[in-house]
Amino acid sequence: MTLRLYNTQTRTVEPLVPLHPPRVGVYGCGPTVYGAAHIGNFRTFLVFDLVHRYLEWRGFQVRFVMNLTDVDDKTIQAAQAAGQTIQEYTEPFVTAFHADAEALGMRPFHAYPRATAYVDEMVDLVRRLLEKGLAYTTEDGSVFFRIAAFSDYGKLSGKDLEAMQQGERVSADEYGKEDPRDFALWKGAKEGDREAGAVWGAPWGEGRPGWHLECSAMGLAEVGETLDLHLGGEDLIFPHHEDELAQSEGATGKPFVRCWLHVKHLRVDGAKMSKSLRNVFTVRELLDEGVEPAALRHQLLSAHYRSELNFTRAGLDASARAVRRVADFRARLREYPVERDGSPAGSLSHLAREARHDFQAAMDDDLNVPEALAALFVFVNRGNASLEGLKGAPIPESHRDLALETLTSLDEVLGFLELVDGEVGPDADLSAWVEERLAARQVAREARDFSEADRIRDELQERGVVLEDSPKGTRWKMRG
Ligand code: AMP
Ligand code: ZN
Known about the structure:
By secondary structure, the chain is of the alpha/beta class. It has 17 helices and 17 strands. The protein has helices spanning 39-57, 73-81, 86-103, 119-131, 161-167, 191-195, 211-222, 237-252, 283-288, 293-301, 313-335, 348-364, 369-390, 397-414, 416-422, 428-446, 450-462; strands spanning 4-7, 12-15, 23-28, 61-66, 135-137, 143-145, 184-188, 207-209, 227-233, 257-263, 266-268, 271-272, 309-311, 338-339, 395-396, 465-470, 473-478. The strands form 6 sheets. A 4-stranded parallel sheet has the order 4-3-9-10, sandwiched between helices. Helix 10 runs antiparallel to helix 15. The radius of gyration is 27 Å and the shape is globular. The two termini are 38 Å apart. Adenosine monophosphate (AMP) binds at residues 29, 31-32, 40-41, 43-44, 69, 232-233, 235-236, 263, 265-266, 273. Adenosine monophosphate is lined by residues 29, 31-32, 40-41, 43-44, 69, 232-233, 235-236, 263, 265-266, 273.
């Protein structure tokens, strides 16, 4: 069995054959650090994490690089509006990105190049393209890529060049282009760029790199001339990745990417995420609300990366239950009585081997997470049923150990149990406050002051505390 992935460029599912096995070089387009990343961005980044983890699980030696876009139109505009330099403005969002990534259990990548630290490499790349006649300068010190000189243009996205030519309009800062389709490699300095500290020197004039150029330069510098895998959200296929391909292959004359993988966009409550619909959630907002990181990770990874994923509160609740079910099974196994020659009935070890096999087959098949999760849940359900049938009779220690090792191994890829383990209970101050409020609610109830009791329940709910009244008293937990 080999790992097979859908390659956007060839539109087929192909075996992943790295240039220098067992090494795999991967580049993923990371966040533009001009605001807090939303859960849509993190759908994509969690797929990066899944790819990273699965390649390692399959025994590849992975080098995974994800850039941080800290200079582009958006960061400059935002920095200007805040009266700051891009450096000052973007720094807190870089920190916030790392905090969110860690909270969702993303394993650190090998490098996080920031565009502003690679301007020399970008200038060098432009120079090579100019020398080859694949680029030209304009009067204002900008440099454009000459699409007519690169016959492979369009091969990734499959865009029809003639149709593009008619549809394209020239934006105000792109005068002087030979062809409306040509795109900026370098943008001549403007006053606003200077204020934001976003101007660098180059032989053809001061200015700043174009966004597409940034990723080409960082990919070539950090991974190599040919990347085994290049990842990003589906919106990046055109023009971002098409342009990366043109620049990189134009300069090196070598294939830039062996396999392009694109993640479909996340929707929220059935709609496209947009500020006007007020359905753009950041990871931080949800976690502050008390959503369990493991549940959010599960929800964002639960669909196949090329399928629609619709984020809903009900889905999040279902994810919390799913994660809980796996964690409970593991807890049950840990506590289950074992002995050297216990009853092999129900053969937990057979179920474990089957789960591992089916999990790998699903993941090898273009990272089919829904099928991989199904393999895990068949294991959990049948494993539970088998233990129930034993009514407490001991099982062989080796079977129990294999079952536990299998859960741990699958979680090396899925990363849910890791997060459950890392969860710390509510802090002591919060617990004390909740206990005090519960006592006050009890006093109100005993005095038949139900409106006060309800008011206290609402107050608790606002802080994310959920109450469960039962004949034995009131239990509480943080909303999951
Ligand atoms: P940006 O910070 O805008 O550069 O985007 C970072 C990454 O998130 C890119 O790979 C985008 O394609 C991806 N992305 C943006 N919106 C969504 C979404 N709604 N669902 C999934 N990925 C997204
Ligand atoms: Zn990129």
